[in-house]
Every structure is written in structure tokens, then in C-alpha cells.
């Protein structure tokens, strides 16, 4: 596969190292220090396959969350005892980012131990990679110009990092739905297999992440794109190129 100069710059920003372009003389050694984030033009589309089924009516929200604004919803989540995860959490992880209209709602696999301690999503190295990924797609979760809101699929960390159980996912579904209703995003980006399977729905049961990528799904009448979790990309940097394709798909989809 080949990339033009713009694509190579974007992949470098995400930390994906490409082989040097062959020249008549040996290329200079690649610096060991990761390059600082750069601002580049909008990435080109990389849509491979788009599947947009007919939208289904979104289910009604439980009355306990339906009338709350974001600050009140955050307080309700902090005090929530809707499932057993509340018994061992240190802090509920409500989410962070755009506080009004968000272009993207980014939904991740459950919080890790550092996020549970901080009460904020993506507080460590995976968060720094996520910020570079969002910047590559023209999005941000911080500052006055924040355009993305990031939140885990369940708001309390399951013990020992296990996958959330169906009842736990059900308990948090109404919170996520209310977040989407308040933020009115143009697109939902799912990070990781657990978030992807839940948001895609029953058809995704047992499917690997690779089978769910490269498509535009629907969740509550919103376009949904699936990609790798940043923590996984830190362990498997070769898949950053695939994440780049997913971000291009998400960017192009959110424009329509």
C-alpha cells in the first residue's frame, strides 16, 4: 500500500511509522523521538463499504434520566446504584469533552484502573493517543473548541477489568442515550470490541472487531463507525493504519 505526502503526515501524527521512501542515497536515520502533533488539511475519504439500514425508532428513556441536563445527569450517575458495579467503583466515569452540541460522541470500552481513580476517561497514555487520533480527524475533546464528547459504554469499571455483563450494559444504556439526546452528535465512534458489539446490536454478537469495521452502522438513528481502542493500538501499532481508515470513514460520514 502507498500513501501520499498528506496521508504520511497524518499517520506520523498518530505515531504510525511508515517505511522510508526509497531514494538513490540511504535515508537519514528516523528520529527516536515521537513527532509533535501537527495541523494538516482534512484527510481524504477512505470509505470501503457503507451499510446504512433503515433507521428504527429510538426507545424511550427511563423517566429517571429523561428530564436531566448534563450537570444533573453527571450527579445522577455519580449516585447511581442501578447495578452491582457501583459496589466496587472508586469513581463513576461520566465522560468529558464538548458540553453543548458535539460533532462526535466517542464511546469506548469500560474505563481502566487509572480512569476509575481519576473519574475521567482516557487519563493516561491511551488518552494522549486518542487526542492525536481525534486531532487527525479534525476533532478535539478539550478546550473551548471541543467538538467531541468521550464516554465509556458503562460508567463504572467492572472488577479486574472483565467485560461488562448484559445487565450492567442495560443499566447504563439510558445514560448513554440521554447523553446523545443532549449533545445531538452527528456521528458515534465506538472504540473497542465491547463498545462496538453493544452499539451495533444483536447482529454483532460473537463478531470480531475486524468484521464490524469498514461499515457505517446505526445506533439510535445516528451513524456509527467502529475502530480500535487506543490502548490496543499502543500494543499493536501496525493496526494504526487501519484506524486511520476508520477515522477517514467517520470524518466523511459526519459531513453528510
Total DSSP helices: 10
Helical proportion, percent range = 25-40%
Helix/strand order, N-terminal first: HHHEEHHEHEHHEEHH
Number of strands: 6
Largest sheet: 6 strands, mixed
Q: How many independent structural domains?
A: 1
CATH architecture: 3-Layer(aba) Sandwich
CATH level 1 class label: Alpha Beta
- CATH homologous superfamily - what is it? Uracil-DNA glycosylase-like domain
Average pLDDT value? 84
Shape: globular
Instruction: Quote the beta fraction.
Output: 5-15%
Using only CA atoms, what is the Rg?
19 Å
Strand arrangement within the widest β-sheet reads: 1-3-2-4-6-5
CATH topology grouping: Uracil-DNA Glycosylase, subunit E
End-to-end C-alpha gap: 28 Å
Poorly predicted regions:
22-26, 37-41, 50-63
* Global structural class: alpha/beta
Describe the structure concisely for a colleague.
By secondary structure, the protein is of the alpha/beta class. Helix content is 36%, strand content 10%. Strand 5 and strand 6 form a beta hairpin.
Amino acid at each position: 500500500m502507498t500513501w501520499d505526502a498528506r496521508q504520511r503526515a497524518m499517520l506520523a501524527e498518530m505515531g504510525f511509522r511508515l517505511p522510508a521512501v526509497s531514494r538513490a542515497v540511504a535515508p537519514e536515520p528516523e528520529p527516536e523521538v515521537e513527532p509533535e502533533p501537527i495541523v494538516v488539511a482534512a484527510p481524504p475519504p477512505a470509505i470501503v463499504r457503507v451499510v446504512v439500514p433503515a433507521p428504527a425508532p429510538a426507545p424511550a428513556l427511563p423517566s429517571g434520566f429523561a428530564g436531566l441536563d448534563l450537570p444533573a445527569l453527571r450527579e445522577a450517575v455519580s449516585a447511581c446504584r442501578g447495578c452491582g458495579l457501583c459496589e466496587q467503583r472508586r469513581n463513576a466515569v461520566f465522560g468529558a469533552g464538548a458540553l453543548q452540541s458535539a460533532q462526535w460522541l466517542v464511546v469506548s470500552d469500560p474505563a481502566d484502573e487509572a480512569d476509575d481513580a481519576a473519574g475521567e476517561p482516557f487519563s493516561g497514555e491511551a488518552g494522549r493517543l486518542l487526542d492525536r487520533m481525534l486531532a487527525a480527524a479534525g476533532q478535539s475533546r478539550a478546550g473551548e473548541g471541543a467538538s467531541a464528547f468521550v464516554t465509556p459504554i458503562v460508567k463504572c469499571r467492572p472488577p479486574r477489568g472483565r467485560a461488562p455483563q448484559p445487565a450492567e450494559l442495560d443499566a447504563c444504556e439510558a445514560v448513554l442515550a440521554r447523553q446523545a439526546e443532549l449533545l445531538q452528535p452527528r456521528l458515534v465512534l465506538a472504540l473497542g470490541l465491547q463498545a462496538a458489539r453493544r452499539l451495533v446490536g444483536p447482529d454483532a454478537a460473537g463478531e470480531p472487531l475486524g468484521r464490524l469495521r469498514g461499515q457505517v452502522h446505526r445506533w439510535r438513528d445516528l451513524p456509527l463507525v467502529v475502530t480500535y481502542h487506543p490502548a490496543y493500538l499502543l500494543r499493536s501499532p501496525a493496526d494504526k493504519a487501519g484506524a486511520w481508515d476508520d477515522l477517514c470513514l467517520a470524518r466523511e460520514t459526519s459531513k453528510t
